[in-house]
Amino acid sequence: MRHFTFERAKSVDEAVKGGAQPEAAFLAGGTSLVDLMKLEVLTPLRIVDVSRLDLQKIEARTGGLVLGALATNTDVALHPEVRRRLPALAEALLSGASPQLRNAATVGGNLLQRTRCAYFRDLATLCNKRTPRSGCDALEGWTRMHAILGGSNQCIAAHPSDMCVALAAFDARVKVRGPQGEREIALTDFHLLPEQHPDREFALSPGELVISVFVPTTAAAARSRYVKVRDRASYAFALVSCAAGLELSGGTSGRIIREARVALGGVGTKPWRSIEAERALAGQPPTKDSFRKAAELLLAGAQPRRDNAFKVELAKRTMVRALTLAAEGA
To answer: Are 87 and 95 in contact (CB under 8 A)?
Structure first.
């Protein structure tokens, strides 16, 4: 049995102080952390319980939504303003886990969710993410669920979150507080590529606690959809997913894309947004031909392996489907 210290933070400042201690971990809903502690993949020496802090609010503001770090996935997904102003986020959340887990899982915990890579979760295998510089058995192993974008010679583990894919597509910003004060991190910069240091997954300093997420609500966000392809209809991680949003101009017979937003899940080592593909769609008609060309551009840099080569074509089709649904309206 591994021993650890448990403390319940009474304030954000108290949580930050505790979280800055060596080998500390924050506990909110616990749907990921507790699971990995049971497997002994994570073995923190100090647990700082932040679940009772006042960070549950979901606020609709002019120009965007503020999601408290402790707002549950269920509360965010069912919030009327989220459903109206950013339907892709509601769809993404409702596509993940089970109702019981969504009732416990939080926004902050989802941002910090660790990979579901089987090698990361198996102590009998080599994993650079779990034990730096030990090696990666996935590189020559079974890779059906692994990334085809953003990998390195150190790690090809796919990022698991649905929520983060939707947030990445729509310029979300994460507010954190740490020993040095508060700052904001763009969601697209919050998760790090593995490169030579796959054990460092987040752009956080020791003790920094997620406070909230701000998501701008644009015309493209209001006309957005999330499509998830998986092995079974529920309680499964994405083989491929896509969050897409469009702002259109013109009448029904001559519509043009003014702005496009696209991010993929299940295929990248982090939520995978492509500014290049979005720019390629601007000024084009919202047709499957336009969508397919953008998808070809986005997947041009894919590096598939034996077991996940099917993801290249599947990702293109999923992106076309999500954009088609967005063009039709949420």
So the answer is: no
Q: How confident is the model at residue 231 (pLDDT cuts 50, 70, 90)?
A: very high
Within its chain, how far is the Cα of 196 from the centroid? Answer: 21
96-113: pLDDT as tens digits: 999 999 999 999 999 999
C-alpha distances out from residue 248 to 70, 86, 251, 262, Å: 34, 16, 9, 15
CB 106 within 8 A of CB 73: yes
C-beta of residue 88 within 8 angstroms of C-beta of residue 225: yes
What CA–CA distance (Å, rounded) separates 89 from 226?
Answer: 7
Asked if residue 228 lies in contact with residue 241, where contact means CB atoms within 8 angstroms, the answer is yes
The three-class DSSP label of residue 117 is: coil
CA distances from 329 to 39, 84, 282 (A): 43, 12, 17
Please provide the size of the chain in residues: 330
Which amino acid appears at position 142 of this protein? W
Domain boundaries, the chain: 225-328
Asked if 264 contacts 129 with a C-beta cutoff of 8 angstroms, the reply is: no
pLDDT at 330 over 70: no
Amino acid identity of 92? A
Nearest to 81 by CA among 68, 90, 72, 93: 90
| Residue 150 DSSP code | S
Distance of alpha carbon 242 from the chain centroid: 11
Dump pLDDT digits (tens) for 15-48.
Answer: 999 999 999 999 999 999 999 999 999 999 999 9
What is the CB neighbour count within 10 angstroms for residue 56?
16
Instruction: Please give the CATH topology (third level) of the domain spanning 225-328.
Output: Enolase-like; domain 1 (3.30.390)
Which residues fall within 8 angstroms of residue 81, CB to CB, at 6 or more apart? 58, 60, 65
Helix or strand or coil: residue 168?
A: helix
